[in-house]
Amino acid sequence: METANAIEIRDLDVDYGSRRILSDINIDIRQGEIMVIMGGSGSGKSTLLRCILGLKKPSAGHINMLGTDICHTSNKKLYALREQMGVAFQGGALFTSMTVAENIQLPLREHTNLDENTIQIMTRIKLDMVNMLPHENLMPSELSGGMKKRAALARAIIMDPKLLFFDEPSAGLDPITSAELDELIVMLKESMKMTIVVVTHELESVFAIADRIAILGEGRLVQVGTPEEIKSSTDERVTGLLNRIPRENNVDKDVHIERLTRDKEQ
Amino acid sequence: MKSNLRSEISYDVLDLSGEIDLHHSPELRKKILGSLKNKKSLLINMEDVSYIDSSGIASLVEGFQTAKENKLSFGLLRISEPAMQVLTLTRLDKVFTLYDSIDQFQSQLQP
Fold first, then answer.
1. What would the pLDDT profile of A101-140 be if each residue is shown by its tens digit?
2. What is the pLDDT of residue A265?
3. ipTM score for this prediction
4. How far is the C-alpha of A253 from the C-alpha of A263, rounded, in Å?
């Protein structure tokens, strides 16, 4: 039976060495929704994304993606699953020796036997969607930060993936480009039936695109809810994040001294 | 994807149904270009298409362009809502000629 959840995260713990980054994370991401994962710097949101992408093995727990437990599956199955995933990394991660168009075509050339005409037309459709068609022959070094981000999105969606992951889509973009990108993300969900996971801390963008929001704080899940539920939350960690209130600097002497003196390898 | 080609004297009607994705679009492309190769105009019935991805859309675009080069008519009939959403997203809803009936398509064909 097909699950209504595209991704299920259960009892997830993640450590880097002796440092616990994520503790006891439980989140369901429903098929066809835009889930925004937000939190301040150091909240663990990027680590959570790396785990979902299968790039970081958790210390404990499970991540079930489209019916496969990615923490306990073969590399072959993980590879097959990745064909159904598109990822737009924050910095673009474009290959510098290839033009924009060549970068975008790469997944099609790697994973399909489509006709050359089909590949060319698909590439131009996706470049047009992100307003990058006039720049198809440029090299990544000739692109601005926003253009790189849009090219990365075009590459992420070239295979029409079931799951799209987007790391900080609006960071470093001007307000108009940022709003256009938000609109495109919503249209991709509605037209292409994609499940989209966005990691960001840009509040304006969060409320423009999210069906639901998961808020992380200091490695723990603080709250999951609709934008309305999050807006009306009385949890101080949520209101602090939404109202940009600096964290209180209450220092537990023992904890602080332990942090400063702990042996690296412990 | 399921498809069925119906041949009339001056045009073909290609009925499509189900999901059209990366796995089906090569077959769709072959059918579209095969029909146009016979110098017949083509009407694609998309009433029962539940999903079409950009590889399917690319096949339609190539068909449209090939028809234009050969001075043939190329139209889309009764597009389903899911397919229309993708056409709108790709701004192709204004490019393709859309028809509500076969009669409407037939009436604009040159004798």
1. 999 999 999 989 999 999 999 999 999 998 899 999 999 9
2. 54
3. 0.91
4. 18
Tell me which residue in A115, A160, A190 faces B53 most closely, judged by beta carbons: A160
Instruction: Give the rounded percent of residues in chain A with a pLDDT score beyond 70.
Output: 95
Closest CB to B59: pick one of A118, A159, A190: A118
Check CB contact under 8 Å for B59 and A112.
no
For tokens 């999210």, name the residue: A210
The dotted CATH code for B2-107 is 3.30.750.24
The answer to whether the Cβ–Cβ distance between A113 and B26 falls below 8 Å is yes
Domain range list for chain B: 2-107
* Residue B30 host element (H or E): helix B25-37
Q: Is A112 on the interface with B (CB under 8 A)?
A: yes
CA A50/CA A138 separation, integer angstroms: 30
Token pair recorded at residue A173: 């973009």
- Here the tokens at position B58 are 């690319």
